[in-house]
């Protein structure tokens, strides 16, 4: 319990750090190379940052499997940039689709779950790419949209971002875009702009996990044809989505309906 308290106390509020940095800039517009994992996640980040920064969105995601999915996501990113209003400028760069880098760096992902060590390697090599490119092109800052995801730990992401920044010699823009209802806003923006929202993180392993979840749901719906089904979650592709199977009452009518919860 004591250790848990220490952990909670030591958590850094990266949204507050970003707010403080913006205050210090005092209206001076700096440039930021924003690594983006996908159009929906970038929507809120661009909306928020574009009030203060000149932004270039960098789509560098060789983790994405299969190739068709990669091209679908990159095209969606380009479309989003065309649609999104901005104040100080909004450009786009597509990085390399060098898939071997993902398989070298995150080789252990096959034996891990999302959020474990291989995912940190997956964040790191993409942040390194952004930092090196940002430095060579003379950007003031680099950062990533990844912290908007409820599945990604902003403490890890910012720690890795700062380490990479120190190694390469460029400033890292702190972020925790899920704060201030950022994730909710990204869902709204994606709906308003008609963006394609994928339902798995990106790599072949996350796709397999998604397929297993889908199969489970399908099976359970078929097995419970006579029951009421309640689906919860912020959107159709939310990975927190749950399917609740409400079993009919027993014949005597006094039993409480049982609730089976299956995570999608
Ligand atoms: S689950 Fe996402 S972050 Fe983790 S390795 Fe796969 S693509 Fe990368």
Task: Please characterize this protein's 3D structure.
With 264 residues, the chain is an alpha/beta fold. The protein has two domains: 2-198, Rossmann fold (3-Layer(aba) Sandwich); 207-263, no CATH class. The chain is built from nine helices and eight strands. It has helices at residues 2-9, 14-25, 39-49, 67-83, 99-105, 117-137, 154-168, 182-193, 204-223, and strands at 30-36, 53-59, 90-94, 141-144, 171-172, 228-232, 242-246, 259-263. The strands form two sheets. A five-stranded parallel sheet has the order 3-2-1-4-5, sandwiched between helices. A three-stranded antiparallel sheet has the order 6-7-8, with helices on one face. Helix 3 packs across helix 8 (182-193) and helix 6 (117-137) crosses helix 7 (154-168). Bound molecules: iron/sulfur cluster (SF4). Iron/sulfur cluster binds at residues 63, 106, 109, 114, 118-119, 122, 201-203, 205-206.
- Helical stretch count? 9
- CATH class of the largest domain reads Alpha Beta
Tally of DSSP β-strands = 8
User: What's the CATH architecture of the largest domain?
Assistant: 3-Layer(aba) Sandwich
What is the helix fraction of residues, given as a range? Answer: 40-55%
Strand-and-helix sequence, N→C? HHEHEHEHHEHEHHEEE
Question: Please, what is the average pLDDT?
Answer: 88
Shape: globular
CATH topology of the largest domain: Rossmann fold
Instruction: Tell me the name of the CATH homologous superfamily of the largest domain.
Output: HUPs
Termini distance? 31 Å
Domains, number: 2
Low-confidence stretches: 255-264
Biggest β-sheet: strands ordered side by side in the sheet: 3-2-1-4-5
Cα radius of gyration in angstroms: 21 Å
Q: Could you say which structural class the secondary elements and strand pairing correspond to?
A: alpha/beta
Which ions, cofactors or small ligands are bound in this entry? iron/sulfur cluster
Major β-sheet, in short? 5 strands, parallel
Approximately what portion of the residues adopt beta-strand conformation?
15-25%
